């Protein structure tokens, strides 16, 4: 039997916005996967002409990769558009400047196929680019811990059926849209599994121009988004013993850690 045909398809979806310096490395990391049955979809979310032209030229000899374009409407809309084009049993969303290591998809699919209660699989991770260090992501220990703050990265592989049933990412959220989705997937008691191996590399850009870097500097937008998540799931938060003030306290601790982290990065840039 053909090995490719026997394995479920995994749809890897990449939202792209002004990332010509990084997209080749990202796509090459998908091409190096040991898993045989992958479809790749890239959605250009209204990039500037230079970046759009580069992407089109780069993909011109890769007819197996689907390319869609749209006016700039945000990363949640770009991911949802990619999902509407996807045919896989499992979904993986990968940002256009990050990298997955070769065994990630194969290991994740093996877990999902053998564990019917498992809804999400994610690995350990590390930072690269501006600075290199480990990124400790806690193992999933229940919904209550996830409600305290998101520790599941966007590249978690999950069931396409669940994503579609829940209508995908909330396009009203500027950030925390992944946290909101994981809550909706896991709130009925299902599990998530962490692979205890570094299989994901998150890029810290030298110019700190990524969406995450920019949002970390905009405390108002960050606060507004997590408040929206709290309001959406307020009954669930309260049921798990987390009132609004508990969440505010957790956010202040998290923001303090992030601010210290940003100051260290800024100091390195100035040296």
Structural commentary:
- The chain has 271 residues and is an alpha/beta fold.
- It has one domain (3-270): Spore Coat Polysaccharide Biosynthesis Protein SpsA, Chain A (Alpha-Beta Complex), CATH 3.90.550.
- The protein is 44% helix and 22% strand.
- The chain contains twelve helices and nine strands.
- The longest helix has 27 residues, at 244-270.
- The radius of gyration is 18 Å and the shape is globular.
- Mean pLDDT is 88; it is low at 256-271.
What distance lies between the first and last C-alpha atoms, to the nearest angstrom? 58 Å
Determine and state the CATH class: Alpha Beta
Structural category is: alpha/beta
- Fraction of residues in H or I helices: 40-55%
The total count of strands amounts to: 9
Give helix and strand order, one letter per element, not per position.
HEHEHEHEEHEEHEHHEHHHH
Number of helical elements: 12
CATH architecture: Alpha-Beta Complex
CATH superfamily: Spore Coat Polysaccharide Biosynthesis Protein SpsA, Chain A
Main pleated-sheet profile: 9 strands, mixed
How many distinct folded domains? 1
Question: Judging from the principal axes of the Cα atoms, what is the shape?
Answer: globular
Low-pLDDT runs: 256-271
What's the Cα radius of gyration?
Answer: 18 Å
Mean pLDDT across residues: 88
What is the fold named in CATH at topology level? Spore Coat Polysaccharide Biosynthesis Protein SpsA, Chain A
- Strand share of the residues? 15-25%
